[in-house]
Amino acid sequence: MDIQFLVERLETLVVGARKFPMTDQVVLEQAALLDLIDQLRVAIPEEVRQARRINQESDRVIALAREEAERIIAAAQEQAALLLQDQAILREAELRADDITGRAEQRAEETMRGADRYAADVLLRLEGDLDKTLSIVKKSLEVLEERRGTAAEA
């Protein structure tokens, strides 16, 4: 039986009882009162058992919720660690790529400067050789002119 219902019956029994004049005391029917007490003795342990079951179920649900929350937190922490690790790897890769690119650009500039120096050296040597060749050609033309002039006089 419901404890609340039994308490209400007890209240009805007390409120409906005959009062002693000039006091707050009442006369209760013993059999009805003892019957209610017996019903309360039966109902209270059942209510307590139900409350314990509800409390245990509540504790079980809370424990499951805590376990799930701990799993979610652990998974989130693991994911965060992986993301941080991935970011660190990405940063390291970017730094290496920047370093490699910088060294490659520096080498390319050095190679271009070297190629320019080499080309300038070759062109200067060629200019010198061409100057010598031109000088030889001019001397040869002069020699030919002199021969023609001497041959024409003879």
Beta-strand segment tally: 2
Radius of gyration: 58 Å
Mean pLDDT equals 91
Percent of residues in helices comes to over 70%
Q: Which strand order do you get reading across the main beta sheet?
A: 1-2
Sketch the major β-sheet.
Answer: 2 strands, antiparallel
N-to-C span? 161 Å
| β-strand amount | under 5%
Q: How many distinct domains? A: 1
Keywords, please?
154 residues, mainly alpha
Question: How would you characterize this protein structure?
Answer:
With 154 residues, the chain is mostly helical. The protein has one domain. The chain is 89% helix and 3% strand. The chain has two helices and two strands. A two-stranded antiparallel ribbon has the order 1-2. Helix 1 packs antiparallel against helix 2. The chain is rod-shaped. The mean pLDDT is 91.
Task: Furnish the topology, listing elements before pairings.
Elements: H1 3-15, E1 18-19, E2 26-27, H2 30-153
Antiparallel strand pairs: 1-2
Helix pairs in contact: 1-2
Summarize the entry for a quick read.
With 154 residues, this protein is mainly α.
